[in-house]
Write a structure and sequence with these properties.
With about 280 residues, the chain is of the alpha/beta class. About 40% of the residues lie in helices and about 20% in strands. It has two domains: about 180 residues, P-loop containing nucleotide triphosphate hydrolases (Rossmann fold), CATH 3.40.50.300; about 40 residues, no CATH class. It is built from twelve helices and ten strands.
Length: about 280
Amino acid sequence: MSLSTHALSVGYQRDVPVLHGLDLDFSRGQVTAILGANGCGKSTLFMTLLGILKPRSGEVRWQGTPLAYGKQALRELRQRVSMVFQDPDQQIFYTDVASDIAFSLRNLGMEESLIASRTEQALALVDGNALKSMPVQYLSHGQKKRVAIAGALVLEADMLLLDEPTAGLDPAGRRQMMALIKRISESGRRVVVSSHDIDFIYEVCDYLYVLSQGRLLAEGGRREVFLNPAMLEQAGLVQPWLVRLHTELGYPLYESEQAFFAAASPAHYPHASKQKEAV
């Protein structure tokens, strides 16, 4: 299972390209980030990967073969590669959760017993069993995002594209989304995340592509990318706070907030506990 681009350029108008000569391979990481400031071309790239937009030059490759744009070929691609939009209301159409998640399977003519089983599995993966019978209008923004992801997962796609998954989420919803992406990746699926949420990307992604004005500025693992402040500044980005603790204050480079606070516990720093007692 592989999705990649070769010399990909895309433009909405003949002489105004949005993406310029991108060579990307989404099999290099289990959770890959498309990172960049607003307007760098992240959403355009996702729509091109799904065949919604056609390149002006270069190509998208699925399973090593250039993407075909016939109806059947695109239908097959979108059963294997699913996208969840930034705004979940763009892809939730039914008034109840279970019917919405089951929609794509019914559209494919699957048996109801299989639909019910797949729906249960998808809801369990997003920790959404309690939402199954709820009317959609009563869901929070974060709950709607989980339902939209379940609607993509129900197809048992090999790859999930998430466009700005933390947009509009409160801190609790953001933590839930982080845990959800980790569960999805641990289930064997690849995930591609488009975002400018630096701290979120740092914790969930293991390979990164940095875009600036539609061009590939850098790529690599988290350390390669986030320990390059000059490049990040050029892209209109900043280092994650955990990386700044390392580069500016000399702390070890922790890979997650959990690891940082575990290391900062009284067991590691007894004097911190004494100072707290004194207060």
